[in-house]
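Problem: given the chain below (168 residues), write out its structure.
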Amino acid sequence: MKREDKVLIGKITSASGLRGEVRIYCYAARKERFAELEEVFLGDEARRVDGCRYQKNMVILKLEGVDSRDQAERLRGAEVFMAASDLPALEPGEYYIRDLLGARVVREDGSPVGSLKDVLTDRPQDLFVVARPAGGDLLIPNLPVFIRDIDPREGLITVSLIEGMEEL
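Solution.
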């Protein structure tokens, strides 16, 4: 399966217990997503999910073929993916961040700002990281006052920047 057909949803941090379970740091919006999956991918290798539970903010998975702590420890650091085809359908006006990456970012008058490099979601307010043509990144809070329109089909994000924002 090609990388664009998969979605990164976590990373294995360690083994859990003695029966081959792995602890996963979850990148997905909902950790419960793991329980809905029949299989995950470790790189290009598909692994059947034989069990899922949660321990605080971590996901504990039992993967088929991983039956000992030693086998689980060897997976430490592996990125965990799901098939993009397993993503739930979106409501109108919703989008996946992965579909926005690389989008052109322009002001309301159409003048270019840059391209969307990343979206930081680990903060109280999501931040759009915009790579500027002259170099450096511009951080734009995902608030209606700044993010005026998002068109994933056109790969276009229209923004309104306040005075001094671009100098930060």
